[in-house]
Structure formats: structure tokens, C-alpha cells
Please model this.
Amino acid sequence: TGFFTTYNGGSLFNAVDNDNVPRGAINLTNGIYYYSKTRTGTDIHDIYAFNTNTNTSIGLVGTLSGRSGGSGDLAFDRAGNMLILISDTSTGIHDLVLVKNVPTTAGTVALTGTLLANLPAPSTAYNSIAFGADGLLYVATSSTLSRVNPNNGVVLNSSPMTESLVDLASCGTPGTLTLQKNITGRSNTTDQFTLTISGATSGNTATTTGTSSGLQSALAGPIVGISGASYTIIETASGTTNLADYTT
Model:
């Protein structure tokens, strides 16, 4: 219709840091729009949320710490996992970080991030990411657009852009791969199993714990499933385990 509505969100920020919100994306699994800013002079990234189903602000839902960087962006995979890009030429940090189980209610939860990749140092900071339908991440600086494997950070190719880029967006929500172990019984109660999905450099392994049978809570992944790529699932013995005692 050509009309738009403005919703209040800025007043939720720290009064000293009420500007510079470089990251935002909708989690299509629940319709919540997440947006992030970096506290000035710190490595703390505040994550806020807005419910697009009810058009109501949720407010601060959590914080991510450990990496200094004021530029970047957010993207979500099909499983609702957040990929956050943190980039800053002054600190030399250009990281892709995976955050699982992003809160949907207000709070100050300390979020846990898994480093997926260190991107090559650019001449200007990375300012945007978006998934393509092929499962690759399209990553931009103000002058360069790159295709990146989100599981290992490998830049497949880059192209200079004649126009200055500020943000990317797409309808791409690539699927994910997760590996989980079902134990029908242990030969020894201390036997454990390590699971691995090939094709990623982090977040792709897990080792079982405890003595219970059935489906185990340890998860290898999720990693993004890239169209046309081949993956191998691997099981190795851990602790006292002799795989010859088992049928896998």
C-alpha cells in the first residue's frame, strides 16, 4: 500500500550505546527478528528480538562475548541456528560464529558461540552475509562480494562491486546435517563413541557420555548442507571402546 509503521526498539538499548545496529535477520522457524549491536569499547554483543507475528518488541534476549568487532551481520539456517558475522579491521577479527538455541524471551542469557570460520582479512570490514539457495554464504564488504563455504570459511571466489554495498538479504534457508548415535547396548558401561561429519572444521564432532542406551544427547553438527557436496559420517572409538565389539 505504500504505507509503513515504525516500532520502538531504540529505547531498549543502553542509554550510552543507543545507535549502530549493524546486524539483523529473521529466524523463519518462529518469525522472530533478531538484531545485534556491539557495546562500545567491549567484546560484548547484545542480541535483541522483535516478534513479527504480534508486532511486539521482546527486548534483550542474551549476550555473546569474546570477540571484538563493530561490523557484521546475522543469518539463520533452516533449523533456526544463528550465524553471526563479527568483523573489525582494527582488531583483525573476521569470524563466523554459530549460536544454537537462541532465546525467544527477554533475558540476559550468556550465549555460547562456536567458531565456524576465520575469514580472510579484507581491506575493509565485512558488513553483510546472506545464504544462497545453494547453501553457500554470500559475504560482502563495501566493495567486494564473496562466496564462502560456511562450514570451513573457504572463500570460493570474490568479485569487485561497482556500487558500495551495505547489506544483503535473501530467501535462502539451507538445510542442515546433524549426526546422532543410537546405542542399543554397551559391551562395557564405560564405552563411548565419537561422531564426525566430514566437510567442516568445527562444530561437526561429538562424543557420547554416560551409560544409558537409546538415542544419545550428543550431537555432531548442525552444519550447513551445501547443494551438490558430498559428506561422510564417521564413528570412532572413545575411552575403553573396542568397535569390534559392536555392529555399527
Remarks:
- The first strand starts at residue 23 and ends at 27.
